[in-house]
Amino acid sequence: MKKITFLLMMSAAHVAFASPALSAKEAAAAAELAKSSGCMSCHALDEKIVGPAYSKVAAKYSADADAAVSLAQSIRNGSAGKWGRIPMPAHGTMNQEDINLLARWVLTIKGN
Ligand code: HEC
Fold first, then answer.
1. SS3 of 66, please?
2. d(CA 98, CA 106)
3. Which residue has a Cα nearest atom 7 of ligand 1?
4. Higher pLDDT residue, 2 or 12?
5. How far away, in angstroms, is 23 Cα from ligand 1 center?
6. pTM score, two decimals?
7. What are the tens digits of pLDDT across the range 5-58?
């Protein structure tokens, strides 16, 4: 019985992390975090600055069930060659939960 409960909890946790859906509270926290973490000096929601528009990132990975995980890795370790010639620097000192939230948030951004 214990084992089954544990397995159910694990799969619920996995679904929660893989799903790009955010509560309104999480979305607001993520938007603040993106500003205070300097993301918005290189990114905008719906236009390219130094890095790609978040709406374009969300569109590119919309069919990718593992996108939240791979985007979190890109944010943490930096990213190069996926969008153009300018690389994104690593954000290795950021809290992993914050990075995960930002990755899930980016996937919810819709373009016009
Ligand atoms: C110095 C400018 C800069 C900053 C600061 C920056 N980015 Fe980026 N970001 C980029 C560039 C350039 C790319 C495209 C990299 C590539 O081509 O692989 C990118 C790519 C991305 C991607 C797509 C990665 C992929 O795997 O396709 C995401 C998501 C992202 N950034 C989120 C963030 C978040 C969240 C932050 C703040 C914690 C942030 N970025 C801060 C410049 C920046």
1. coil
2. 12
3. 88
4. 2
5. 23
6. 0.87
7. 555 555 555 544 545 589 999 999 999 999 999 999 999 999 999 999 999 999
- Cα-to-centroid distance, 11 and ligand 1 (Å): 29
Q: Write down the domain spans for the chain.
A: 2-106
Q: Which two tokens stand for residue 97?
A: 């939960």
Burial 11-25 (b: 16+ CB within 10 A, else e): eeeeeeeeebebeee
2-106 adopts what CATH topology?
Answer: Cytochrome Bc1 Complex; Chain D, domain 2 (1.10.760)
pLDDT of residue 4: 59
Angle 98-99-101 from CA coordinates, rounded to 5°: 65
Distance CA 52, CA 69 (A): 18
Q: What b-and-e string marks burial along 66-78, b requiring 16 or more CB atoms within 10 Å of the CB?
A: ebbeebbebbbee
* C-alpha angle 78-54-43 in degrees, rounded to nearest 5: 65
